[in-house]
């Protein structure tokens, strides 16, 4: 009888562990500013199936709230990336299962950065360069918009490379005194050849040697979450490879539009570039 009770207790513990693994996802840090993340309880949606949610024309991540601080408010939570172009407002709109939800966005002022680029074509590309850039941009956007629904194990990341944070996310960029798009990632400066490691598991969605980004890898982590690695000296993976946390993706370099060896690490959520710092483990 004691053996049966002990076995039942063991199975119960295992069952609880399995349940906790399903709902033990550590969420990214919420920051309701341009380039940040909003976590919105989908109050009133008590469906068994995961709701389908959309924000600014892109499908967004929805997760069960069980095991999170949002569990008492709703059964499901939406995790949405906020564009850098977003304006401060009290009424950003998203839709989930035909129901409207609203959240506020606060203003944030990012600093300016002035860089000198020796290759003038990387500042004022010629017509052929522009055609190439447009083809490459279409490939990148297709990767950002891809949608898969794996069983998410982790959406908090390890750093993909060891080095100095040389340029934070969101900087207002000026190349040779000419204004360009804000900095859409986090730059990590390190010597050429420094390993670049996958911060979480996923599938390689795209690789290439791009005009601006140099040698590049994009990894799809599922549910609209992708990461990008640019200016690499070497790529060690190919499209379709299944990546585990800690696998080497390649090495740091200075290819493309770069002023020295570094990794440009980008994080995209619902086809929106967001601050990678928000995904780092404490």
TrEMBL record:
Residues 33-108 form the Peptidase family M23 N-terminal domain. Pfam families: Peptidase_M23 (PF01551), Peptidase_M23_N (PF18421). Gene3D superfamilies: Glucose Permease (Domain IIA), Peptidoglycan hydrolase domains. InterPro entries: Cell_wall_metabolism_enzyme (IPR050570), Dup_hybrid_motif (IPR011055), M23ase_b-sheet_dom (IPR016047), Peptidase_M23_N (IPR040487). GO terms for molecular function: metalloendopeptidase activity. Signal peptide: none annotated. It comes from the Bacteria. Residues 182-276 form the M23ase beta-sheet core domain. This is Peptidase M23. It comes from Neptuniibacter caesariensis.
